[in-house]
Amino acid sequence: MGDNRKKLTKTSVADIAPVAGKTIIVWDTETRGFGLRVSSGGAKSYILQRRIGKKERRMTIGRAGDMTLDKARKEAAKLVAQIVDGIDPVQEQERQAVQALTLRAAFENYIAAPVQKKGASRGKVRKPRTVRDIRLQMMRFKDWLELPIKDVTEDMVKARHKKIAEVSPAQADLAFRYLRACLNYAIADSPKDNPALSYNPVDRLNRVSAWANVEAAKGHVPADRLADFVQAVQAGLVGLRHENEHRDAILFMLLTGARHAEVMGDAKSGYEPLKWSQVDLDAATVFFPEPKNRQPFTLYLSRQVVELLRQRHKVSGKRRYVFANAKGDVAEDIRSAYARLEKAMGFRVTSHDLRRSYATAASRCCNAFVLKALINHVVAKADVTAGYVQIEPDDIRQAAQAVADFILSPARIVPTDNVVKLEARG
Known about the structure:
Order of helices and strands: EHEEEEHHHHHHHHHHEEEHHHHHH
Largest sheet: 5 strands, mixed
Shape: elongated
CATH topology of the largest domain: hpI Integrase, Chain A
Structural class: alpha+beta
Oligomer: single chain
């Protein structure tokens, strides 16, 4: 430990001066391994150094300005007692920190961690919308957030899931999927010899088959109602505040399968509306640099959609966003338009229903591999055949045109004033 030794007293601790450019340690002559570390800037901390098994451990007890010398000696004595009992104080401190991890801290760690699931998002920070969703579901467990995660039991999980499911089975499953992922991350991020949990209590829901397993939404515009729907969109939104922009946006989503956030934006999630800089009318394409799955995507446009955008360009071409009005404003919320369409059609439609309608129509016009390319769905790596099938841009472009023709072919749309005429081929 060197020859820099002296009896540490209140006076001697105060008198020890720093040395420019280096940290010094003054070892106490009264207590073996007890010393004072002094930084070049003058910060003083009490330390204890002892051999534990084959390792030499140097432990910081506390800053000299925050505790008295007597208090530091007593803390050093406690650490020595642990060592005598075969306990590594450093490992014990780490163990206690892991075991004290609260659910709130575990959620924050999970949110801050890179995305773990396979795909283009792996290793990237979570999207604002995902973070928002996680924080909303955290509130399902607000009375648990200050508990150490080791105190979250299987019985608590089962009872809370049942309670939420009585109101909304889908929300119950969503909340506990996030909780399961959060706790799995806490386990993975803790030392193997000191795991935060020995098991994930949410696994109880698997063993007792308690998941609600709500079926995925299937809403779409039936093929035999497409004509009526297109007619309702073109002529039935008159009088709404943003009738022209919402009419064109709804037709665009129906004829391309684009997502609402990609078209109209989502301010809460950090999505901008579709910009003219993404559109190339000469090439008949729209480029999405970071869609939902984070794989850059080129959307190929049918001639009907190109014509719709050319007409739209006359209104908003000098503005930043495609579906802006003449003042440059984009009305992200389309619910009033969908409410009007529901009255006309007798069934409710959402933006994602339009995407399902497009995919359903596409399933009649092209094979499954081209369909995935049309709507930018990731092909599973386990699908060996898909790995051999190479989709050419012309295949996608031809399919996009065929889908638009199919959607519009039975419509026999009658053009009205201020409405873009959408015609089928043939």
